[in-house]
Here is the input.
Amino acid sequence: MQPYSDIIISTITKYLPKREAEWELVGFINKKKEIYTFGSDSKIIGRLFEVIAFDALEKSAKELGFILYESNQQTVYPDFYFEKPDGKKIAIDIKTTYRRSKTAKYGFTGGSFTSFMRNGTKNIVGKYSDYDGHYILGVVYTRENEMSKGKISVKDVETIIPAYKNIEVFVQEKFRICGDKKGSGNTDNIGTIKANSIEPFVFGAGPFSFLGADIFHDYWINHPRYTDSITTKTSLYNDIPSYIRWIQVKDSIKASELQVQYDKYLEFYNNRIQNEWTE
Here is the structure.
């Protein structure tokens, strides 16, 4: 299996800042030229990364012949989208996370699987069927323990220690980095793969890269919801092996084909993620 890339990924990646200093925002400034540092709040830092990424997305849209739009509501998917000349959209969601240690694995959330994926219109710009592609622009960083705090004059801006460091960025199709587990037990969010290296995310090394986008969609639109009854949950599945058994009841040939592809993924996982991409 080769790393997955396409014209969307390569174009956005080309325009994203390459030097860490370009990602370093140090605070909010007022007209008195006073800078208020923003601390380590992950929601604020995530929004700052969206502001930085906007320029790359705008340049990418222009090169690709698309129009860039930003969602005007924080709770509506996606964060940004390209609109193509034929009216179709390409979703770009910006996800951020921080490393808890050098060896701890990290992951992202891939969004809800109970809203627009199921009814086509809930919490999404336009309709789910309007979209030709779904991408994640992921940013990983390390929290800075010695960050500057409080109010600082703009003349001392060079002395400010940012709240984050060691930034790594990737762009990848969403289904290629999503896993078969929820982001957390008490939500209905899709979880991504987890790793202590960014390489699997750059590569697109999730199980659905082998199983396909259609299976990714089918898996998550039928996955039990947090509020479902125990009876409903036990009648469905909670991982890919039990999903294949669920398919087996309805279509044994399809289940056999899925098992072959899943076995290929497990072999790939054991050889690459476990050995090459684990520090």
In short: The chain has ten helices and eleven strands. The first strand starts at residue 28 and ends at 29. The mean pLDDT is 93.
